[in-house]
Amino acid sequence: MQSAIKIDHLTKVFALRTILDDLSFEVAKGQIHGFLGPNGAGKSTTMKVLAGILAPSSGSVEIAGLNLDKDLNEIKTKIGILPENLPLYLDMTVEDYLNLALSLRGMKSTAHYQQAIEKTGLGSVQKRLIGNLSKGFKQRVGIAQAIVFKPEIIILDEPTSGLDPASILEIRHLIKELAKDHTVVYSSHLLHEVALSCSHITIIHQGKIITSGSMEEVTKRFEGAKVVRFEFSHLPQEVGQSVKQFNFVKKVEMEGNKLQLHLSSKEEKRPELLNYFLEKKLNVLEMVQERTDLEHIFLELTQNQGNIV
Amino acid sequence: MNLILVLMKKELKSYFSSPLIYILTGLFSLIIGWAFFNLLVTYVESLQNLPENLIGSTSFVTNVIFRLFGNINFMLLFLCPLICMRSIAEEKKQHSLEFLLTAPITHTQIILAKYLTCLILVLFVLSSTLLFPVIIHLAGFHVTSYMISGYVGVMLTAALFCAMGLLASSLTENQIVAALLSIVMMLGLWMIAWGSQSTNNFFLVDLYKYVGFIDHYENFVRGVIKTSDFVYFFSGIYFCLFCTTKVMSSRNW
Asked: Is the ipTM of this complex over 0.95?
């Protein structure tokens, strides 16, 4: 696995307050890597350190094989960032703004400009002042300035924040398109967004990494208690209560002919439960096992400080 | 150097496409033109009221040139802060500074580009006064050397004030606060020389006079060009720009 980004024991202290505490993780080339965390977790600070806006207090950061301390200017030509607050000049036209982004990197390529315009769908507004554009278009201009000089790595800090559902869909589609040519690091506190777009995630909370890995790994690692729901044609009270005899049943909830069982075991217990109900001559109309999704993991992890992996 | 020019071009385009610079130029021309007209009228009236044998004692240089440059200098106190106030403060407020910080351009290059832009804009506004030497020359007063040294003094003062204005702009996100802060800094530098009148200590008198910029400026207006005055202005400019770079870097502290 070739690393696009390698963060090793990164710490950032602001005014005696530790914002990032000993972060270490890697992003492989070609990945869409989700960077998840609640507000104030340190996502944006990490992104700013990666983009060279902020210097780390300690630790090392390697980007595209270059060291952030030694090769900062070269790194800045290999990394494009869309910060949380759009860095736009409202009194410039889209065309002038993107050409400025190119000129500041010593480039003057109309091909690069055209590709960025096509990818972000800004063709119809390229001659307009940025200040007169809608929020969705401004977001696209922000993404366009991050990709116009064809960086290897693109960092998007909350790119869908404040957008309407249609724009969110478009941006999500755009991110997937970008991942074909670039490594994308995508920060968000919207869990379903990350689940839909990313192949790998890192979860951060209060400046510390809670977990990092592929979506499957993280989901598997944190798969906890399962919940199985049954619906019967008729459910006698005593049968519902008798199911507690299984030591893997942690909690039983009954409501009419519906039964919800909280299991402590990670192993498959549905056949055993189904056989038991059939032995009791009950008609099972429905059996559903709730999936442990990212949202559950995220909430569990960010509420449980000690569970750092 | 190329990146500085790229950024300067962008900054100049932005300033010249906003009404601020034209309003400032118009107001400045109006006020300084009115002042110049009054100085001329007062001088001519004083000549007419004097007996013929005393006319030679009323110097055009003292009564018009010195006062004209004094007025221009006073106007710089407001002109420079108004031009420099948005330079960095606005970028911070709009978060567009991050656009520059993520590009391969150093803090020093950003500051130099912004500084030179502000200086060009101030000189653009001041260029409206270039008509005065022409008028003076056509009126038959040949004071070219005074005018040249006076303008050198004005340019150096403008350069120092722009550096101070940029420093103030880097300290805050609010343009008005930046403008007020730089006016206070400039007035401080102006008034510090007054301290020399309140002490008999020769060392303090010399110190106050050296730190305050008025004596250095007046040397130029009087047609006296001294190396120490250049050193004063250039070291002041360097100090302010150095502090601005440090303030920009303080984001990392």
From this structure: no
